[in-house]
Amino acid sequence: MDRKNLLPIGQFSQASGLSVTALRHYDASGVLAPAFVDPVSGYRYFRRDQVRTAQSIRALRQLDIPVEDVRRLLDGGEEELAAALHAHLRAAERRLEVQRSVVHSLLSRLTEGVEMTHRVTVRQGAAERILVRGATLDNSGLDAFLRVAYQEMYEVAGRGPLTFTGPAFVRFHGVCDDENETLVEACLPFWEDGAQPTDLPEGMTVRELPENTLACTEVEGEAAAFPQILGAYDAVADWITEHGFAFAGPARMVYRRWTGTPDHPDNRLEIAWPIDEPADD
């Protein structure tokens, strides 16, 4: 083989910015195969036009993209690679936004205290009959799920027509953020003595909620958008813990005023957590 246009692995390493060890690893994983391997010495040689590919691999790995995804992206062509890079950038910006919000929230709690930003009150919640649509998801799929769920429930309610007894709300059975999935239930309360829903689509149910006591706080505008709203959940949880109550059910996000746009300044949400007297040991 004519080796004039080939670079030995040491020179290729210098040109590409990838270590010899990394190049051997990417060869073994099928990401970047050498153009020629000496059958006697086992020494690897690369074509000069492979330098740019190696540099792209180095950059993708610096973005913490897994090796398996690097191989797929390089095989998929420029359009797929560009789309993946834009998606990665949006995700990175989202993570930075969450981290910035968390830092500001912690700094605020250190300097002002949680009570200064979130006033927690207690109210009684009546027994309710509700339409429910549930799904297990993380925050990335929350808005889309809630839009579809409430659209379906309002269509069912309109056939009744049902009489609503309060604002729509969401129940979170665990942590729902960018790293954790949980069961999320979209809920729509209606009058149990009036018209009742019929022909429910698959996955939609009617449920009875007992009367309860709720620890609550309200947030408006930007404070009602994710991730800022997480501070409201923390405030209510802290209040429940500090006042010796027991958590008696999933946390609720109640739509007191909702424009349809998550970060709209006119939005007003209530975070309400069912509580009970702690059980005797």
TrEMBL record:
Report what the protein is called.
Answer: MerR family transcriptional regulator
Domain spans labelled HTH merR-type:
6-76
UniProt source species: Streptomyces gardneri
The Gene Ontology terms for molecular function here are: DNA binding; DNA-binding transcription factor activity
Please tell me whether the keyword DNA-binding is annotated for this protein. yes
Keywords in alphabetical order, please.
DNA-binding
Highest taxon listed in the record's lineage: Bacteria
State the Pfam families in the record: MerR_1 (PF13411)
